[in-house]
Amino acid sequence: MTASTSADALPAPPPGATGEDTRDARPSLASRLAARASGGGLQVFLILVALFWLMPTMGLLISSLRDPTDIATSGWWEVFTAPSQLTADNYSELFDNDVIVGSLWTTVLITVPSTLAVVVIGSLAGYAFAWLDFPGRDWWFLLVVGLLVVPVQVALIPVAKLFGALGIFGTTAGVIVFHTAFGLPFAIFLLRNFFGEIPKELLEAARLDGAGEVRLFTRVVLPLGGPAIASLGIFQFLWVWNDMLVALIFADDGSPPITVALQQQVRQFGNNIDVLAPGAFVSMVIPLAVFFAFQRQFVTGVMAGAVK
Predict the structure, then answer these.
(1) Contact, 122 vs 188, CB < 8 A?
(2) According to the model, what pLDDT value does residue 54 have?
(3) Residues 170, 105: contact at Cβ < 8 Å?
(4) Alpha helix (H) ranges present in the chain?
(5) Which tens digits make up the pLDDT trace of 46-74?
């Protein structure tokens, strides 16, 4: 009787459960391999990949700190056995070069206004498309989305003719206008989608408190949209700073941006690595500094909407 009672007390297996189902519940070979790979081995592999990816940048930095004769006779890795080769003379000569210094200032004068204009206009337009009702709003937004697929090369000749008629061809203002116009479609698309995720109840509560559209935009929408705006600013800054195609066509030949100035150095002098290496490294470090300064906001903006 005791054995019978104990057997009755045991929980009944679920319908259709067999011993084979129990065996099938064990982790598969793929899942076990994935679990083992997620440990220290994977981290070591990723570190090696990162070091391999950074090797060209490291080589450029070391080359910019070596004498031109050393660069011509040996590879940059030789500096690890002869650290006395490192010198800052190349950077001293670089910042004494009026062409390079002027091109850096020209790049700043192009990049900063282009980025600010895209951020300001894109924020206003994104808010309007997200929360304001006006005739043809959805059709206008579809037109903006359609402009995303228009390549820059298609507009070079028509815009050059237009700028020539307006008298801004070959000027810094023309480059700023071009970058602003081609940066706005992506800016409006990004910010409209981000602003549209703001809870409607929050905006209605602000309106009930007497906030107008301007105050609502500046006090509610902009603070909440900070990550997306920071991401947009980084994208626009990097695109304009590293651009050479638009600068070659529309910039002033007397004060070109840094990308065009370095290209001219290669064309004119050929082997002047003592100017090219530090100049290329400086032109790369500045956008990297901007990226790392806004890295947290950038990651937040990119991941926005990924988790509900």
Answers:
(1) yes
(2) 84
(3) no
(4) 2-9, 19-24, 29-37, 40-64, 68-73, 89-95, 98-131, 137-147, 152-166, 172-195, 200-208, 213-216, 222-224, 226-241, 245-250, 258-269, 273-293, 295-303
(5) 888 888 888 888 888 888 888 877 777 77
pLDDT at 258 over 70: yes
Between 296 and 117, residue with greater pLDDT: 117
Place of tokens 């081995």: 41
DSSP 255: S
CATH of the domain at 280: 1.10.3720.10
How far is residue 188's CA from residue 113's CA, in Å, rounded to a whole number? 17
Whether residue 153 is contained in a domain is answered as yes
Structural domain for 262, as ranges: 96-303
* Section 148-177 average pLDDT: 90
**Hey, what are 191's tokens?**
């910010």
Cα–Cα distance for residue pair 67/89, rounded to 1 Å: 8
pLDDT tens digit sequence for 6-23? 445 555 555 555 554 445
What is the CA 167 to chain-centroid distance, rounded?
A: 32
Indicate the residue type of 263. Answer: Q
Position 27: which residue type?
Answer: P
Give dist(CA 218, CA 137) in Å, integer: 22
> In this structure, is residue 126 part of a structural domain?
yes
Mean model confidence pLDDT for the chain: 81
**Residue owning tokens 């982790």:** 27
The tokens describing 2, both together, are: 């005791």
The answer to whether residue 174 sits within a structural domain is yes
Note whether residue 161 is domain-resident: yes
For residues 141 and 129, is the Cβ–Cβ distance under 8 A? yes
In a 13 Å sphere around the CA of 307, the CA atoms on its Cβ side amount to: 3
Number of domains in the chain: 1
Q: Model confidence at 1, in pLDDT bands (50, 70, 90)?
A: very low
